[in-house]
Design brief:
Helices cover 26% and strands 21% of the residues. It has 7 helices and 11 strands. A 5-stranded mixed sheet has the order 6-5-4-7-8. The longest helix has 17 residues, at 199-215.
């Protein structure tokens, strides 16, 4: 029986803080022995590079059937996967994301989870998540019992051949996809099933991406809103000072400036 050591919730490190659409064939797990991963019957997996269009799909969720691209609309989206319902690490993660839903909404971001079980299991699991995390989970969770979307987004671990269910299908790993309003994949993270994610880091990278898009800057190591940002080397110091005002040149290729943030 899994147990959780209770402690004070960690502070955020900054203030305030499944049928694919036609362009992607429907991927169905092929018949296999219990030691093999699910493999697509029709084609190889798409290459999910940063900047590529996130594969579209239709799927059943705890809030009804969705067309993924239509569900995203003109917002940002975070798609994150889980190995299975009623597992201890996944339960803590979904509770943490539920608590930060308001922060993601401030950033025009929609959350959607995925777990390798059916809808009836999801509904019962959400009750446990709300109870153990003292929260109210209100974003949808995709039912991906056949791992169709998990395969489409390569949410599987090549090494962990023992991490399979009763059907002999590989469980999903902990993947995170940050997708922008143009449906482009902007950032990915992949964790093994044994390691829980850091929700503050997911929020931080969204701030970094959105700041870069809106202000034409890049962000240094461990950056959080309110820290100095980096002016791209393609912009001269003189032009940077015209655009940003106070710019500090550390090296000819490193110029820093402080941006005023307006988000409360």
């Amino acid at each position: 029986m899994a147990s959780i050591v209770t402690r004070a919730a960690p502070r955020l490190s900054f203030s305030a803080y499944a049928t694919p659409i036609r362009q992607q064939p429907y991927l169905r797990p092929a018949s296999q022995s219990r030691r093999n991963f699910a493999t697509p019957a029709t084609s190889e997996q798409p290459r999910l590079r940063l900047g590529s269009i996130a594969p579209n799909f239709k799927a059943k969720t705890t809030q009804g059937e969705i067309d993924f691209h239509q569900w995203i609309g003109d917002k940002w989206a975070i798609l994150f996967s889980h190995p299975a319902d009623f597992t201890p690490v996944c339960t803590t993660e979904l509770g943490a994301f539920a608590k930060l839903k308001g922060e993601f909404e401030k950033r025009n971001v929609k959350l959607i989870g995925l777990s390798a079980n059916d809808l009836s299991s999801h509904s019962r699991w959400i009750d446990d998540i709300n109870e153990t995390s003292n929260t109210s989970l209100t974003f949808p969770i995709i039912a991906d019992a056949e791992r169709n979307i998990a395969w489409l987004y390569d949410m599987v671990d090549q090494q962990d051949l023992s991490n399979i269910d009763q059907k002999g299908i590989a469980f999903t790993i902990r993947s995170v996809f940050v997708i922008d309003p143009n449906k482009k994949i902007r950032l990915t993270m992949m964790y093994p099933a044994s390691t829980g994610r850091n929700t503050a880091e997911v929020l931080r990278v969204v701030d970094s991406l959105q700041t870069g898009d809106s202000r034409g800057v890049t962000t240094p190591i461990d950056w959080i809103p309110g820290d100095d940002v980096i002016v791209p080397p393609t912009v001269s110091t003189a032009d940077a000072r015209k655009k940003f005002g106070d710019v500090r040149e550390v090296k000819p290729y490193v110029s820093l400036c402080l941006l005023c943030t307006t988000r409360e």
